[in-house]
Amino acid sequence: MNPFAPIGRSLIGRADGAGYVVDLLLRTGLALPRLRRRFRFTLDMAFNAGVRSLPVTMVVAAFAGAILAMQTGIELRRFGDTAVLGTITALSMCREMGPFITGVILAATVGSSMAAELGTMQVSDEVAALEVMSVDPVDYLVLPRVVALAIMCPLLTVLSDLIGIYGGSVIAEHNLGVSPDLYWISAREALTSSGMLLPKEVYVGLFKAFVFGIAVATVSCASGLRASGGALGVGLSVQAAVRNSVILIIVLGFIVTWFFYFLAG
Amino acid sequence: MIELRSVCKRLGSRQILDGMTLSVPKGMNFVLMGPSGSGKSVTLKHVIGILRPDAGSVQVDGQEVPTMDRQQLMALRRRMGYLFQNGALINWLSVADNVALPLREHSKLGKGEIADRVQEVLRMVHMDHAAAQFPPSISGGMKLRTGLARAIVTRPEYVLYDEPNAGLDPIISQQIHELIVEVRDQLGVTGLIVTHSRACATHCGDRIGILENGRLGLEGTVDELVHSDHPLARAFLGGGAD
Question: Of chain A residues 129-168, which have a CB less than 8 A from chain B?
Fold first, then answer.
């Protein structure tokens, strides 16, 4: 037996999976003009996604902001420069931490549930039933979910940014002795110094969240639609959805940062 | 008319269909029997275009199904209904909404007309009392009857039945059989029924075909096959069958 055969099979399987996700994304894009027919369902999906992930997002963002302020503050205190703590926390939350935290939470809560729902539908012939009724599963099942997360991820990111910065302010005041006024002024100045209506730190972060939302929903729906083999297959599809979403969030986060801060200046 | 000629299909390492030839004239219920894994459901999936044959021809009313583009396939599927083993209902839609789904997606009927049509077919399958219920809260038999209502609500020319009485008790099975006959007689629908059940085959079928080694090993009218001494007929339709 060729020792490279299993590696080859695994690579082909992964390439096939990636191709399916790209194809699904393109088909979802082409289905966008039909969104009006799915408007109500899309709103329901967006509402569910928001409600389901809101509490976790708030808790994680608050602690992430607090940890960020704590770790940064320890070093800044050594140099006697804790006045810039608000700046660093605000920029870190808006540029990277907010979108990243929200994306990962959405992948774990909403993405996993999407993969489970669609996977169960796939193994119980419900997706096939849609097809034989001439109802396009991409149009009916995937489009509302992708649009819902594309909307909700940036909205939750705004919340996550604010709560994270607030979490940092609590630590700044109680553990590092930075006055709240100084913290909030430096945070606000960091985000408004460009003079633009929507500062680059904020819009790049929101763009990242928008990309993460689309990626999480598409990957999760693709995993669900490719499920096979009953309950075990659905379980594996959920696992694949969360794993692939998190990997994509990190890779896409890097690409977007590189594009906006290095390529486009 | 549904016509398969010399259809071959391999799935993985198994040759499922191997020269399958079958003809279902209009207005008739054709029952397809055979052992598990013999290719009965695979045959149905070829007729509705979910699977494409490796070789051979699948035609519906003279149109070649495997070469159809997406639009043509969608147009063909609008003329067909498909009853899945477990009904395959959408869980978050009520019974009435499940039945209304194909009409909402494809017809130009107004809300009132759709509601009337849904009520009419739900009455036909004796499910009008459960219109507001959701699939997780209804029994297997009710799911199948709802699935049948959904399959016929668009007034299709053909209905494909995949194991319409699998896992049902004899009383509910009998109700489903009567409905299948009613669909043929009242709506003039052509049916292709996949089943293991002798009762279903003899009650619902006009002709019966039995699969063996990926093709029809035996075919005839219900009467011919019930009284046949052929081992296949005895195995599936003999006194001990079912």
Answer: 129-135
| Antiparallel, parallel or unpaired: β B207-212 and B215-221 | antiparallel
Distance from CA of B104 to the nearest CA of A (A): 10
The pLDDT tens digits along chain B (242 residues) read 999 999 999 988 889 999 999 999 999 999 999 888 889 989 999 999 989 999 999 999 999 999 999 889 988 998 999 999 888 999 999 999 999 999 998 888 899 999 999 999 999 888 989 999 999 999 888 998 899 999 999 999 999 999 888 777 888 888 889 889 988 998 889 999 999 888 899 999 999 999 988 889 889 998 898 888 888 888 888 755 55
Residues A46/A243, Cβ–Cβ less than 8 Å: no
Please give the domain boundaries of chain B with CATH numbers for all domains: 1-22+31-66+159-171+182-242 (3.40.50.300), 91-156 (no CATH)
Residue from the list A121, A126, A132 with its beta carbon closest to the beta carbon of B82: A132
* Amino acid code (one letter) for A122: Q
Res. A58: pLDDT tops 80? yes
On chain A, the residues whose CB falls within 8 A of the CB of B88 are: 124-126, 128-129
Task: Judge contact between B140 and B84, C-beta under 8 A.
Answer: no
User: What's the distance, CA B14 to chain centroid?
Assistant: 24
The span from the CA of A116 to the CA of A99, in Å, is: 24
- For residues B213 and B82, what is the distance between their CA atoms, to the nearest angstrom? 25
Of residues B75, B77, B86, nearest to A125 (C-beta): B86
CA distance B148 to B142: 10
pLDDT at A265 over 70: no
* CA closest to A122 among chain B residues: B88
Residue A216 is which amino acid? V
Check if the beta carbon of residue B210 is closer than 8 Å to that of residue B219.
yes
> Beta-strand (E) ranges in B106-203?
158-162, 190-194
Q: Do A135 and B101 touch (CB under 8 A)?
A: yes
* 3-state percent breakdown (helix, strand, coil) of chain A, nearest 5: 90, 0, 10
CA distance A85 to A74: 10
How far apart (Å, rounded) are the C-alpha atoms in residues A41 and A81? 51
